[in-house]
Every structure is written in structure tokens, then in C-alpha cells.
Amino acid sequence: MTQAKNQITPWLLLLPATVLLAVFTHIPAVMTFINSFYQTPRGKRPPQFVGTDHYTTMINDPVFWAALKNNAIYALGTVPASIALAMLMAIIVNSSIRGRSLMRMSFFLPTVLPMIAVANIWLFFYTPGYGLIDQFLGLFGFHETNWLGNPDTVLGSLMALAIWKEAGFFMIFYLAALQQISPSLSEAAALEGTGRWYFFRRVTFPLLMPTTLFVLINAVINAFRLIDHVIVMTRGGPDNASTLLLYYVYNVAFRFWDTAYASALTVVLLLALALIAFVQFGILDRKVHYK
Description:
Elements: H1 2-35, H2 53-59, H3 62-94, H4 100-112, H5 115-126, H6 132-138, H7 154-180, H8 183-191, H9 196-207, H10 209-225, H11 228-233, H12 245-255, H13 259-284
Family: Belongs to the binding-protein-dependent transport system permease family.
Subcellular location: Cell membrane
Keywords: Cell membrane, Membrane, Transmembrane, Transmembrane helix, Transport
């Protein structure tokens, strides 16, 4: 009886989390995949099976390709910059610098602010002529710029906000990893006359690779997941220059009410993220040092 109880107890403890995960993650994902092969029901008209018509439409959809291109540029711009900035900030606040507690709080503060609040703050920064950025650049003779209204600058403006918002969150993981590195390693390197850059490149960075892999996966997911700032600041404009893939899914599903086509777009988005994660694990996991 006791042995049977010991075998059942772990499964009972896992049951609540399993049910929540199935109800809110796995079942919706399966239903989304199934719905992508049906037509969106209208009124009393039931959904009809259309096969791969939505995926064919997607291939010929210029807005989809524009959103995919924007998202790729957005990810390539925000992910490496956020990780590098987070690592730099973690190294700074992990040192014996004065006021490091205040610096830690300052670096982490953007993380606790809601993205909608942050987007509204940065709207003021980007206001042509009156915004903080134009006021500062005006001191050096630069003319005012419509940062969010120019197709050449709007995506970069959103990327700058995302880097500022996410770097502090990733810094926490790097700070925890740095504090796990034994001080004896740096002491031995100092006795051998090793420079700081060489020690970081040969010792610190390899030991941070498990954290980097974890942060990289989360950063890529966030690059395709976060759209609050797009909704508040640009709504995908001008001329879809800032339309990201998930924002396009949101528009198709809730503005055009074409849930079936939105399901097909979601399936493609999930497959893209799964492929990226698989490549990341396949490449970086070989370079990870867990001890």
C-alpha cells in the first residue's frame, strides 16, 4: 500500500500543472492547427473544409511577407543587442563599483514597467520637434525627424525600445550566473598575469554559455511575441513598415475576423519558432559547459 502511494503521489502533484498546460497550451495549439484547414464560420454557416487554401493564400500575401521580413530584421537587431547589453550590465553590477545596488535597480527598472506604459513614454521621446530625442539632437544642429512616421526609421525606433526594455530582465540571469563562478578562477588568472579581456573570453564567457542559451531562446521568442508597443505606437504603419508577424495575426483574427486564416498564420509562426529553437540547441548546445 505504501509503495503504491509513493508511486501515485508524484503524478497527483503533477496533475494540476498538466491539466493547465493541456487546457491552455496543447489543446489550443492542436485546435489552431485543425482550424487552419477550415473556412471561418460566418453566422449560421458552419466551417467548411478548404484544405491548404489558407497556406496558398499566405504564399501570395504581400503583407505576410512584409511582416515576416520585418520580424526577421527586428529579431536580428534586438536579440544580439539585448544579450550583449545584458551581459555588460551584469558584469558592471557584479563588480565592486560604488553604488552598484542603485545601478542594479536602475538597470532592472524598465523590466517591471508594463510595455504599454513604456510605449507611451517613448511616444513622447519620439515626438517630432518636441520629443526628448529631437530636443537633444537639436543641440548639435540636427533637424527634427518623424521617427515613427518614416518607413526608414520606424522599425529601428521600435527595436531601440525593445532593447532598453528587455536587457534588464536578461541581466538578472547573467548576474546570477556570474555569482556562481568561483572567485578562485580570477585569482589564479591574476597570479598568472592574465588580462581581463583574455580571462573573459577564455573563462567567463564559456561558463556563461548555459545562461546564454537560455536567454537566447527567450529573447527570440519575445522578438516574435511582443506586440504591445506596435499597437500603441505605430499600429503597423507607415505602409506596414512596422508590422510584425504576431501583430498581423492579431489584425486578421480580431479586426478582419478571419480566424481560420489567422490560425494558418499562427501555425507558420509556431513552426518558425520551433525551427529556430532546434537550430539554436543544435549549434550552441555543443559549446555549452555545464560545469
